[in-house]
């Protein structure tokens, strides 16, 4: 297998101490789509952020791009998201993509809509009830129940951030043995089972066909994606952040729009090279 990292253009470091930034060049990656796995975060990476979780939308052409890349990688493209598989399917309907959902709680390898692996037990009902009551702290706090975790969104009530975290800490302090952890995201505080992360989900995915043995490249934007950035070297893979250069990544994109344009070029060039064969 060739070294994918050598196939992309390198830019000089912005600061003397920072390693050089690698900018993915679709043209050089195209001939290697049979050797790579494409792993993509959703919110803030593939899709623009929206005021509420329900308001995201899939821009024209994105599904076509993903379908083309799914085909060209022989199925080795997966969405890696904090959202549940059910939610991902509603957003991308009628398309159904391989995915790691719920920050590693669920995994689906193919386009059948059943999960192939579920890592997460449902969250304790009483705990959930207590956490859910935090939404009453302020109008604008939105509750998202994923079954195995609970997310408190405060994008519409930013002034409530500190109070939400304080209340979550208070509840956790009363339950010192509970196997839960708090995951801060973009204007969201998520409480989930401690036994899984996006990284554990990706490791599981990379053990299964058609992902096994491929070199992954992962694109993500959020704190919750950092666990995946950290494990890419274990698979000789590459990681890219969005909107900022995160610690340890190989390069970054400025916006979801840039990510979509990169993927479209990758799919298009592959389409062209397939047509000219
Ligand atoms: O891992 P991701 O695919 O990036 O999912 C992370 C969370 O995304 C969603 O919330 C975020 O996006 C919303 C829509 O843009 C935005 O309103 C919210 O403020 C963001 O936190 C989703 O609702 C969560 O379940 C995911 O964990």
TrEMBL record:
One MF annotation (Gene Ontology) recorded for this entry: trehalose-phosphatase activity
Keywords from the UniProt entry: Hydrolase, Magnesium, Metal-binding
Protein's pathway: Glycan biosynthesis; trehalose biosynthesis
InterPro entries named among the record's database cross-references: HAD-like_sf (IPR036412), HAD-SF_hydro_IIB (IPR006379), HAD_sf (IPR023214), OTSB-like (IPR044651), Trehalose_PPase (IPR003337)
Family annotation (Pfam families): Trehalose_PPase
EC code: 3.1.3.12
Gene3D superfamilies according to UniProt: HAD superfamily/HAD-like, Trehalose-6-phosphate phosphatase related protein, domain 2
Residue segments, region Disordered: 1-20
Classification via CDD domains: HAD_TPP
Keyword Metal-binding attributed: yes
SUPFAM superfamilies named in the record: HAD-like
Catalytic activity annotation: alpha,alpha-trehalose 6-phosphate + H2O = alpha,alpha-trehalose + phosphate
The protein's required cofactors: Mg(2+)
Function field: Removes the phosphate from trehalose 6-phosphate to produce free trehalose.
Family the UniProt entry places it in: Belongs to the trehalose phosphatase family.
Protein name: Trehalose 6-phosphate phosphatase
Lineage: Bacteria, Pseudomonadati, Pseudomonadota, Alphaproteobacteria, Hyphomicrobiales
Protein encoded by which gene: otsB
């Amino acid at each position: 297998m060739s070294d994918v990292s050598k196939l992309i253009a390198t830019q000089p470091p912005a600061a003397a101490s920072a390693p050089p930034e690698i900018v993915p060049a679709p043209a050089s990656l195209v001939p290697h789509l049979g050797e790579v796995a494409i792993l993509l975060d959703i919110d803030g990476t593939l899709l623009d952020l929206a005021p509420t979780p329900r308001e995201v939308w899939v821009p024209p052409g994105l599904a076509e791009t993903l379908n083309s890349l799914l085909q060209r990688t022989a199925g080795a493209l997966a969405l890696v998201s904090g959202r549940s598989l059910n939610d991902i399917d509603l957003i991308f309907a009628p398309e159904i993509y391989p995915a790691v959902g719920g920050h590693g709680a669920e995994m689906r390898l193919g386009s059948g809509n059943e999960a192939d692996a579920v890592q997460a037990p449902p969250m304790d009902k009483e705990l959930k009830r207590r956490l859910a009551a935090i939404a009453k702290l302020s109008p604008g706090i939105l509750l998202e129940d994923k079954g195995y975790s609970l997310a408190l969104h405060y994008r519409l009530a930013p002034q409530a951030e500190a109070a939400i975290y304080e209340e979550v800490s208070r509840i956790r302090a009363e339950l010192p043995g509970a196997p839960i952890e708090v995951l801060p995201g973009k204007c969201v505080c998520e409480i989930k089972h401690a036994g899984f992360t996006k990284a554990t989900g990706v490791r599981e995915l990379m053990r299964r066909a058609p992902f096994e043995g491929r070199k992954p490249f992962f694109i993500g934007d959020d704190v919750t994606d950092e666990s995946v950035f950290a494990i890419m070297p274990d698979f000789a893979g590459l990681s890219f952040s969005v909107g900022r250069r995160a610690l340890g990544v190989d390069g970054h994109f400025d916006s979801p729009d840039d990510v979509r344009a990169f993927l479209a070029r990758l799919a298009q060039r592959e389409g062209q090279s397939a047509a000219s064969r």
